[in-house]
Structures are given as C-alpha cells and as structure tokens.
Amino acid sequence: MWLLGLSWALSMLATMVGSGSAVPPPGTASIFADLSAAELAAVRSFLLSRPELGLSPSHGGPLAKNSLFLVELLPPKKRLALRYLDQGGPRPQRQARAVVFFGGQAGPNVTEFAVGPLPRPSWYRPLSFKGGRSVPFTARPMTMREYEELHRVLAAAMAPLNRLLRDATGFWYHNGSCQHPRAGEGDGLGQRCLTFSDVAPRGLASGERRSWLILQRFVEGFFLHPVGLEVLVDHRDPDPRRWGVRQLWYSGRYFSSPQQLAESYERGTLEVARLPLPPSRQLFSSYEPRGRFTTGTATKVHGARVCEPQGRRYRLRGNLLEYGGWSLAFRLRSSAGLQLFDLRFNGERVAYEVSVQEAVAFYGGHSPAAMQTKYMDAGWGMGSVTYELAPGIDCPSTATFVDAHHLYDADGPMRFARAVCIFELPTGVPLRRHFDSDFQGGFNFYAGLEGQALVLRTTSTVYNYDYIWDFLLYPNGVAEAKVHATGFIHATFYTPQGLRYGSRVHSHLLGNLHTHLVHYKVDLDVAGTGNSFETMDIRFENISNPWSPGARESPSKTGSWVPTPPNTHPTQHPHVGFCPVPPDRYHLAVTRHHENEHSSSSIYAQNEPWEPLVHFESFLRDNETIEDQDLVAWVTVGFLHVPHAEDIPNTATPGNAVGFFLRPFNFFDEDPSVASRGPVIVRPLDPPAFTRLQIQRWTPASPGPCSAPAPFTYNGTYRQD
After folding, report:
1. Topology of 37-127 in CATH?
2. Which residues form the active site (predicted)?
3. Of 342, 377, 394, 630, which residue is the catalytic one?
4. For 191-199, what is the mean pLDDT?
C-alpha cells in the first residue's frame, strides 16, 4: 500500500495485492505524449478547412468571430489505456482536444471537440461536460484580441484624466503602444506610459463580464507601481463598440465616470496622491543589486553547483522517464500543466495519474480590485505560460531541458524552449544513516546512504506570480509533489483603510492578504485498480501494567491504531480560511474513478465561478462505495500569505512551498533503496586502537573532478585529545 502523506493526517490506501507487470517499453508511454508541433498544425489546418465551422484566424479581425482557441492532447480513456498497457490490447487512437469560440453567430458559445485520428485528422465530434451543459460565451478565457480592445476603450476613457495622471504620477495612458523601459537608456522611464492589470472574477453574477483594471506605471516590475486609479469596464457584448467604463475608484473614492473624476480634480475637491518619479537605476521593484552584507563574505563568485561526476543516472526516452526503480510518462498540457501517467516502481504501478488541477489565490482588500480578486489560474492558461528555464538558476546547469509546444490563443504552434527540466538533486541530507557507538570513545560501525532525488520541473508565470512545479522521485519508493510560489505580489495602492487587509510594503504600496490553494489529482492504482480508502488515528489507553500488577500508567504510552470506517466519503478536515470554491473545502477527498470526472476544474471556472461547468461537489454527492474500487484522491495544499516588506522585489521561495508525499506502507518487504549501490559502510579492524578501518562502497572511491578529488575518508572517533 502507498501512503498519501500530508502534514495533518495519515491516509492509507489498503490494496488488493496483485502480480506486477514489467516496465513498459518507451513506445507505450507515447500514448500520453503531448501533441507535436506537426500534430498541432494538422489539427488547426483540418478545422480551419471545415466550411461549416467558419473559423477565422485568432489574431486580427473582429472579436465577434469563430476562432480556434486551444489545441492539446485528448488523453485516451483509462480503460482503453490499461487494456493496451497491461493486456496487449489495441493501441488507443491518438486524438486532440480543440476549444472553439463561436462568437460570430447568434447565440455565441464555446464548444470543445475531439479531433482524430492523429497525425492525419479526418473527423471531429463535440465533447460534453458532465450533465451535458454547454459553455456560455461569457465563460471563455481572455484572448489577446480582447485585451487589445480593452486597451482601446481604456485609452479613450483616460483622455479626460491625462492632466490628473501627469500631475500626480508623471505618467499617462497612451493611445498607442509603449515599449518596455530599459535601465540605462535615457531616464530609464521610457515613454512614461501607464499600463493595467485586470482581476477576476469578471462580475458578481453568471453571465457578466465586467473587469476591474488596476492602472500602473509601466516600469520594470510594474505590478508594484499602482497609481491609485482602478477602472471598471463592462466588456460583455461581443461588439466592443458597446463596451464602456462603468465606475472608477481613485485613492479611496468612487466615481461614476472619468468626467466626474476629472471635474473633481479641476475644482480642487480631490485628494491627490502625488507620486515621485521612480529612479532610473536601482528601482525597488528591480533585481539590480543594492546594499551590502555586513560580514563581507564573497558574493561576486559562483556558489555551490550540482554536478554529475560519472554522468546521468536517469534515462529519458521521449516522454518516458526512468530513474532507479521508477518509471513514468509525462506531459505538459497547455490547460493546466504537468501530468504524470503510469507511475511505476520496479515495474509495479503505483498511480495511473498524478497531475496539477488548479491553483487559486483569494485576496482581501479595501479597493474594489483587491476585494474582487479571486484568481483561478487554469483560466489564465496556467499550463501554457511555461517560459524558458534558465540553466544554473531555475534548474542546475547539468539538467536535461525539454521544449514544449502550445497552441493557445495563437495562429499556430508556439515553441517554448526549455519549458521542462529534469535533474538529479543531492538533498543535502542522507537518505539513511547510523553511527553505532561503542560508548567508549569509538564505534562498531558507521553506515550511510547519500540522499538524492530525481526532479521533474516546470514553471508557470501567470502574470505577476511564478509557480515552480516539481515532482520528486526518491530511491526508497517515496514520491513528492511540490509547488513553490515566487514572483511579484499582487499589490494595490496604499490607503489607511487597506491596512485591515494587508501590509504597507512600500511608500504607496499595499501587499494584500491572500490564500494560495493548489489542487492535485492522484489516481492511485496500487497493485491494481481495486483499492480501498482508510484513515488511521491513535487512541491512548489507560491499562494495568502487566509486569507490575496494580501499577497503572496514566496517560498510557501505549497506543493502538483505530481505523475509521473505510466508506467515509468524503474525508473532510477543518480548513482555516475563506474557501468559496468547492474543491478547496477538503484537504483530501476520495472518489471513484469516472471518465467524465477527469478534472476538478476547467479553463472556464475563472470567468464562470457562480455556475461552474465542472462542479467538484457533484463528484462527492453520489455517495458511492469506495471499498475495493478504482479510486481517485483529490488533494488540496496551500498556505496563507501575509505580504511583508521582504516580498520586495519578489516573494522568495523559502517558506512559500507546499506539497504532499506518496509513501509506501508495508508494500515492500524492506526499504527498496537497499538496491542502491551508493551506501558507505565503515568498520574498525583493530578496536580499541581504531588505526585501521574497513571502508566498503560500491561506487568509485572518488566521485570525480567536480567534487573533492580526494578519496572518501572517515574517522568516527570522539575521544578527548
């Protein structure tokens, strides 16, 4: 059995033990591989060639048109995949998932299609959501074309406010395009443009599409440069000519129109927040070094590095990754990010799927944009913003880097270089070790096994925030899912009233309080698909001491494991915080596997959270038995972020990481890492002199030139000099 290790509970899957199967050849893993650039292009060409769809290019042209928004792999149904992987059945047909915006017709909507067979598609059919609901057009994610129209509307609306903005900020909203300012050029402030960040949900009820926009000075790290003006734009109508500004908020006051705000400024009745011009160098929101460490230790030299003295100890063939006892297939889906399939240890399947489902951030604040912000990042293309990883920073220089191709709001496949990296990481702590003292200043033996893990990593830069997504594989059969949060905080303009909802992190900047929650799907198939779910707890007993009659221990140190009924459904634990989205009500929920419950969220949840297309609560309401069934665990992890001055310029990764473990529990006869040839055993040959030692190891005496060149030595004594 495998443990789903969380900080608050011990959760166990009791399994029906079955015979293991061999590690699949690389060709079988390819059924889960992302679509190639050629396949993405073929799907797009095929759909654009169908006259009944009437598709136009995504970029350019009117907003009210039919366009292809997203193409990605449509994974095979689980039963078909298992028949192929385990029973030698037919290879599942390769298909694509295509998302089409039908905006150029009466009754606009969003429709998803299955397209196949690949690599030469010849048919398409509509896909449906659980319950057969259609996707309203207002639920669609934002596109670059819609942002262009928002910019145009905002530029026209800001014209009456140019004097106010110039006087108060030294910047104004330009009608044309602005280039990002570069440090060292001119005054470093470029054209002194204002830009904006939009927040979501886009309204207060289903069917709305009203967005609050935060105006910011367009300098490096503009997320930290709000100017105190927030604007509500209604952009529901497919015709942008019917859009308009409905409300404004400036420095704590609401206004019904730009003209009303401008008139208040002209009359002198407006309290103006005047901002000094930002410096051209060492801007507080930049990464440029500033200040000094007091110890004077070296910082102008490179720090420690990961090296592979005898080469890589993992193997990557296509999307099949192997390391020690582990093997898995992986993909980087454009909609939500990393997805692992067919996770095995020593040929035995542990999980059919482990994947990221959703990342949400709920904010509080005094300004309208802050109080409205409830980000659901699958709706912002969380899996498609996997920008290039920097060797030596984002991943060790020794890592293997993998490119990704996305077709997301684009007129063709886009290559994202170095979107994924794979590397073996020294953990800095031994996997196991023991020093066996003789309690006389010497030892009987020392033994230790160095700690390493294989890391599969990507990042998602969802506008201001950067998420670092990791899956780690350890030699002892433990797997870990982890996410680090970094990047710029989502900040608003400081007002005294805002201190109830955050911290003043700079002179005119409020870091808003928020909660990060991340949802994972863990389809565990431990020794087969017939699994049960069980929780275990400890109960203390007050008992008579059997070896000293009449004596009692209170409280007793003797505890017994008391399993709760295995049909507990769902498992609900207390959760501190405001969690309006159903998946986040549970630290852990366990359901039976259903093909129409393949994901707990969708790309439409952000703009239609009131009547979501994927209603996670419905997964639980059927009250099905979860004993000896094909089970899926849905795991929520998260943390509360109270921004502070040290979040400037960016939130740092230490202390801002969460995750969970999958741990074997009586599944093996012993720790499977005993198969590693990495341990070192030291035994004294002449105690109590300890002048001759026997050092046993199964790897070369010296790891190589990138480490200390001298052979391993060990003394182990702790005698007085």
Report:
1. Nuclear Transport Factor 2; Chain: A, (3.10.450)
2. 377 (proton acceptor), 465 (schiff-base intermediate with substrate)
3. 377
4. 94
